[in-house]
Amino acid sequence: MEGVPTAPAGFLDPREALRAIGIRAGSRVADIGAGTGAWALPLAKLVGEEGRVYCVDIQRDLIGTLANEARRRGLDTVEVIWGDADTPGGTKLSDRSVDLVIFANILFQLEAKGIALSEAQRILAPEGRLAIIEWEDSFGGVGPHKDDVVTRARAKELVADAGFAIDKEFSPGAHHYGLVCTHAA
């Protein structure tokens, strides 16, 4: 993907993780905790002109930066939303409105993880998927403090409690794990 910086060899690369998730052209994707767009910008290229990327973040300055960068790149399919995933309805997205929700390096930061996962459940279409990319550990001062790491086992408990079933696990890069989840039957 042109114009998207690559990660150091072996470290987390959003492009590779998105390939593992399997993003479809025309998809409607919610990037929760979008920040400045490390995931949203490559997502916009993958969903194409027919798709949409909703970038939700609680930090106005970050989504402002993302909006400016998307505009600069001509990515009209990117929509930034000031919202709080820790609050029911806080993403401001409609019920069953997206095909994919991505929590990338955000689960450890959420105070109300269960509410955020319930919010993902609410906005996902019936055949929708939730992708979680999260820190496996605290690595040399990069990423979360060791007390804030959400282990793979804990993430599996959280998604099950929120009504999701794990469809696939993948390795998105060093010091991270990936889960793709669907609505539990």
**Strand content of the residues, in percent?**
25-35%
Q: How many strand elements?
A: 7
Q: Indicate the low-confidence ranges by residue numbers.
A: 1-9
Q: Main beta sheet: strand number and arrangement?
A: 7 strands, mixed
Measured distance between first and last alpha carbons: 36 Å
For the biggest β-sheet, the strand order reads 3-2-1-4-5-7-6
| Pattern of helices and strands | HEHEHEEHEHEE
The secondary-structure class comes to: alpha/beta
Question: Which descriptor suits the 3D outline?
Answer: globular
| Nearest-integer average pLDDT | 90
Q: What is the share of helical residues?
A: 25-40%
* Radius of gyration (Å): 15 Å
Please work out how many helical segments DSSP would assign.
5
Question: Can you characterise this structure?
Answer:
The protein is of the alpha/beta class. 28% of the residues lie in helices and 27% in strands. The chain contains five helices and seven strands, in the order H-E-H-E-H-E-E-H-E-H-E-E. A seven-stranded mixed beta sheet has the order 3-2-1-4-5-7-6, with helices on both faces. A hairpin with a 5-residue loop joins strand 6 and strand 7 (176-183). The radius of gyration is 15 Å and the shape is globular.
Tell me the layout of helices and strands.
Elements (H helix, E strand, L loop, with lengths): L13 H8 L6 E5 L7 H8 L4 E6 L2 H14 L4 E5 L15 E7 L8 H11 E12 L16 H10 L2 E7 L5 E8 L2
Parallel strand pairs: 1-2, 1-4, 2-3, 4-5
Antiparallel strand pairs: 5-7, 6-7
